[in-house]
């Protein structure tokens, strides 16, 4: 059997949540609404989210790849905490499949995830528990990071597992594109909330100048052509060319590979200095 699959990749940003009047990122928001309409029409049985971690869930032990068997969402900004409806049997079978396929994944229980997972779920799917969700963590924040080739192979292995499910699945990749969050440009793994807030506030003016639309355009073109070789190169040089936050493009590569390698075409792109990020949405046809 082969499951029906829709791939959606979207940037996330805490700045989007703080922009309660929706004064910025209007082109991005419109593209996000288009993607959410596609998800609603597709009506998935299962959602798989490839997301990074901002050194919250994984600080002292950092797996290259992890599968959540149970997970909650941390309270952030105006959003309360909440539990995700993780199907434990399916998540465990995914872990076993990946282990047999040569990936030493971490099986994670009761982990608290931040906006890297919460924002795309809320924006594209609905409430946190509206659909069964399997969070798949990809290390995008704490060196050493998995190389682009391995990320593509990992995503393809997840896709082979999904091929065996008789379920309609939305696969989400979330993060990027170009941005340089001040809290990720330092190699401090155990920041408290106050420390993190001060580093971000001090570094914000410079971070607003570090969006790289040229690099973002290369990523979107490579996704739309599903040029794996180009994407691998872009991943491996992401930090040098487009900032620490650009490392999150690994989740886009993994999601596209899990979708079977179909083109994932842009619905919209907008550099938003107020959110310090090149914001984009892309989806498979």
TrEMBL record:
Domain spans labelled Extradiol ring-cleavage dioxygenase class III enzyme subunit B: 26-278
Could you state a single Gene Ontology molecular function term?
oxidoreductase activity, acting on single donors with incorporation of molecular oxygen, incorporation of two atoms of oxygen
What is the official name of this protein in its record? 2,3-dihydroxyphenylpropionate/2,3-dihydroxicinnam ic acid 1,2-dioxygenase
Keywords carried by this UniProt record: Dioxygenase, Oxidoreductase
Q: Which organism is it from?
A: Mycolicibacterium duvalii
Gene3D superfamilies per UniProt = LigB-like
Record-linked NCBIfam families: PRK13370.1-3
């Amino acid at each position: 059997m082969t499951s029906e699959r829709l791939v959606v990749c979207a940037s996330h940003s805490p700045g989007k949540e703080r922009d309660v009047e929706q004064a910025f990122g209007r082109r991005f928001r419109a593209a996000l609404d288009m993607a959410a309409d596609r998800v609603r029409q597709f009506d998935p049985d299962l959602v798989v989210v490839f997301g990074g971690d901002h050194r919250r869930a994984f600080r002292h032990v950092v797996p290259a790849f992890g599968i959540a068997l149970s997970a909650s969402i941390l309270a952030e900004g105006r959003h309360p905490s909440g539990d995700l409806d993780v199907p434990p049997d399916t998540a465990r079978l995914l872990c076993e499949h990946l282990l047999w396929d040569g990936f030493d994944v971490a099986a994670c229980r009761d982990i608290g995830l931040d906006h890297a997972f919460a924002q795309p779920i809320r924006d594209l799917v609905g409430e946190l528990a509206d659909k069964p969700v399997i969070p798949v963590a990809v290390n995008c924040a704490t060196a050493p990071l998995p190389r682009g080739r391995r990320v593509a192979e990992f995503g393809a292995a997840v896709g082979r597992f999904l091929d065996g499910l008789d379920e309609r699945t939305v696969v989400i990749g979330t993060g990027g594109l170009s941005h340089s969050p001040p809290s990720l440009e330092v190699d401090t793994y155990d920041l408290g909330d106050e420390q993190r807030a001060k580093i971000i506030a001090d570094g914000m003016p410079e971070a607003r100048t570090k969006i790289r639309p040229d690099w973002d355009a290369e990523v979107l073109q490579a996704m739309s052509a599903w040029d794996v070789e180009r994407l691998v190169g872009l991943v491996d040089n992401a930090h040098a060319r487009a900032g620490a936050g650009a490392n999150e493009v690994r989740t886009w590569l993994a999601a596209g590979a899990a979708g079977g390698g179909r083109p994932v075409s842009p619905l919209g792109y907008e550099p938003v200095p107020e959110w310090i990020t090149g914001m984009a949405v892309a989806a498979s046809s």
